Amino acid sequence: MKTSERPRTAKAPEAPAVALYQQVKDHIVRRIQDGSWRAGDRLPSENELVQQFGMSRMTVNRALRELMEQGRIVRVAGVGSFVAEDKPQSTLLQIANLASEIRQRGHDYRCDVLTVERVAAPLDIAAALDLRTGESVFHSLCLHREDGVPVQLEDRYVNPRAVPEFGAQDFTRLQPSEYLVRNVPFDQMEHVVDAVLATPEQARLLDMATTDPCLLLTRRTWSRGMPVTIVRCLHPGSRYRLGSRIRADGHPLVG
After folding, report:
1. What is each CA distance from 8 to 4, 5, 76, 83, 169, in whole angstroms?
2. If we measure between CA atoms, which residue out of 150, 130, 133 comes closest to residue 141?
3. Are the C-beta atoms of residues 252 and 93 closer than 8 Å to each other?
4. pLDDT of residue 6
5. What is the DSSP string of 128-153?
6. Distance separating alpha carbons of residues 130 and 225, to the nearest angstrom
7. Which CATH number does the domain 89-243 belong to among 3.40.1410.10, 3.40.50.970, 3.40.50.200, 1.10.10.60?
8. Dihedral sign from CA coordinates of 202, 206, 207, 212
9. Which residues of the chain have pLDDT under 70?
């Protein structure tokens, strides 16, 4: 007579061990997030971290190097590592409402409308909006501020065939980008980001040095195959960050 065997209980898989350098990174990030270390604070030296964690100098150096590449810390040769200033981040996968983003951070938002005019389209603008060179287009120039500090210079051209009433709007009440999103539903969008230097006039408006780097976001939108607008948004690199997070299927994560 056979004796019945007890069913074997499946062994739960063990959680993967956290890499040593990641442990150092996690420790530093936690101290920054809980407010123990604030922007500008000096971090413990490499030697101090080596002694604290009992790890090799190479391991600690990798953790600090990756934190620097991610914009979390700033490293100064011969001086040490410091917590980086927290830069606002704007998404690339949707048209963000800059005013809402700034106010959600609890900061004051202001838009200075510098120019709203109708001009002859330069060659590059005519090509971007599928118009004839010299054909009339709307042009607006706006300076966006966060707590009084310039964070974006918005240089926009609008196709009058798509938005004939653009020039008649009161943009002191509703900024151009918000007006377009509300009134001209777009079904295609193109984003291109470049690292550039500001012109002397752009640097003056953004209250920055001409030698400081900028991020230039160029956006085009279409509605039913017709180009609607091309806008160039210039951000001082030291004050702003552009980025996105997406799902594996390519859709943006929102909310």
Report:
1. 12, 9, 57, 52, 74
2. 150
3. yes
4. 53
5. HTT--TT-EEEEEEEEEEETTEEEEE
6. 10
7. 3.40.1410.10
8. negative
9. 1-18, 86-96, 240-255
